[in-house]
Amino acid sequence: MTMNLNQLLAADRTLAVVRAESISDAAQLASALGRGGIRTLELTFTTPNVLEHIRRVVETSQDHGVMVGVGTVLTAAQAESALDAGAQFLVTPGLRPEVAKVARERGVPFSLGALTPTEVAQAVDLGSEIVKIFPARHVGPGYLKDLLGPFPELKLLPSGGINEQNAAEFLKAGALAVCCGTSVVPPALVAEGGWDEITERAKKFTASLS
């Protein structure tokens, strides 16, 4: 059975966010993460040639089973180009109504970035079923618990500063899943193709979530 984004995040409890100047082979990167138990991959518009990398992951999806999306989406044009390249979900660092509009029209899941209760409410109004709390390191797990008071059904995805030491605390506070970044996918390893080490880092990170 093919799982959607919500189901994958609920099952794996994490999403890998890659910020790198270079990706030697995006398909191998996806495979490495999949072997480590992480089946959602967010590439970002801060990486050169990101659309080519998205296409590469999508074209080889039968080999690794990883869902690929794109983050740091700031404009409608970026959203359209990412979806045309095959991106399966969109993520923004803040409230981007024009990105939300494209995603809704194309029927693709998206997660808008927010921090304050007002921004969270606006993200929900724009159709963001999963709200990314960014930067999470500056507010801590307790902040998520507080947000779930007035928004008990909210699906929260904290991002920024999440590591093996604090990830489980964010989940205990009520997060649907957490974003993992350089602790699992360091830019140098992504650039040089250190796939086995990335797999081991992914396994170690996912083991820390329980």
UniProtKB/TrEMBL annotation:
Instruction: Check the record and name the CDD domains matching this protein.
Output: KDPG_aldolase
List UniProt keywords, sorted A-Z: Carbohydrate metabolism, Lyase
Q: Which InterPro entries match?
A: Aldlse_KDPG_KHG, Aldolase_TIM
Q: Care to name a GO molecular-function term for this sequence?
A: lyase activity
One Pfam family this chain carries? Aldolase
Q: In which pathway does it act?
A: Carbohydrate acid metabolism
Q: What Gene3D superfamilies does the database record attribute to this sequence?
A: Aldolase class I
Similarity comment text for this entry: Belongs to the KHG/KDPG aldolase family.
Q: How does it assemble?
A: Homotrimer.
What is the protein's name according to its record? 2-dehydro-3-deoxy-phosphogluconate aldolase
